[in-house]
Amino acid sequence: EVQMLESGGGLVQPGGSLKLSCTASGFTFSSYAINWVRQAPGKGLEWVSAISGSGDSINYADSVKGRFSISRDNSKDTFYLQMNSLRADDTALYYCAKGFQAFDMWGQGTMVTVSS
Amino acid sequence: EIVLTQSPATLSLSPGERATLSCRASQSVSSYLAWYQQKPGQAPRLLIYNASNRATGIPARFSGSGSGTDFTLTISSLEPEDFAVYYCQQRSNWPRTFGQGTKVEIK
Predict the structure, then answer these.
(1) What is the pLDDT of residues A24-83, one digit of tens each?
(2) Contact between B13 and B73 (Cβ < 8 Å)
(3) How far is CA A112 from CA A86, B89, B93, in A?
(4) Which residues face B64 on adjacent strands?
(5) Residues A11-35: tens digit of each pLDDT
(6) 3-class DSSP state of B8
(7) Nearest CA among A79, A89, A84, A91 for reference residue A68
(8) Chain A residue with minimal CA distance to B34?
């Protein structure tokens, strides 16, 4: 069964850092691009970042560029989102989602709250 | 950045009725458009990719059409489980972008 499981969310102060993880199972991890998508409470979906299967192509939304860093460890079927200089408007449920053509598998999300 | 504008914001319909949702792109995305369904407390689910291809396991009552800048998601006859929020998303350019969503609610 294809599954994706996020972890690492929590409460952090403005300016702080957090590292999210997404562990995948049920598919050949290194063959697929992985994305992070977030959803602020009561709001719509916002794409955050993507990394190719090999890890050599990386893209970010302008809203997180220079603050967030995506990476993957294919040996552990896990990928990461390092989030620095967090702001209140980064508060959201963060999903990892598999795919390049479209996001065909999603985790259940991990909540990040940025507040003092 | 490509802006996707969905209309209407809310669609009030009864079970059995036909739903027609629109997504308009600020510039051409060719056929690189997907549709997702999201129910409260759940992750989004892929319905349609490349404008008109149903994802695995998606019922035939869901169909997508369009190319360039204008796209439509049609639900031919609404089932009770179809009342949800629907998002379009483009993969033509970076950054990937989503529309703001259309809520299909029970009338």
Answers:
(1) 888 887 788 999 999 999 999 999 999 998 889 999 999 999 999 999 888 888 999 999
(2) no
(3) 10, 23, 27
(4) B73
(5) 999 999 999 999 988 888 778 899 9
(6) coil
(7) A84
(8) A102
Q: Check B101 against A45: CB less than 8 A apart.
A: yes
**Using alpha carbons only, how large is chain A's radius of gyration in Å?**
13
Q: Indicate the residue of B50, B56, B97 with minimum beta-carbon distance to A47.
A: B97
Nearest C-alpha in B relative to A109: B43
Residue A85 has φ and ψ, to the nearest 5°, of: 50, 50
* CB-based burial label for B67 (10 Å; 0-12, 13-18, 19+): middle
Contacts of B79 (CB under 8 A, 6+ apart): B15, B61
Q: Determine whether the interchain pair A102/B99 forms a contact, defined as Cβ–Cβ distance below 8 Å.
A: no
Torsion region of B98: left, alpha or beta (phi above 0 gives left; psi -120 to 50 gives alpha): beta
Mutate one of A4, A36, A45 to test the B interface: name it (highest B CB count within 10 A). Answer: A45
How many Å apart are CA A116 and CA A113, to the nearest integer?
10
Closest CA to B63 of B55, B81, B54, B18: B54
Contacts of B55 in chain A (CB under 8 A): 102, 104
Q: What is the pLDDT of residues A84-96, one digit of tens each?
A: 999 999 999 999 9
Does A100 sit within 8 Å of B91, measured CB to CB? yes
Tokens of B21: 């949702």
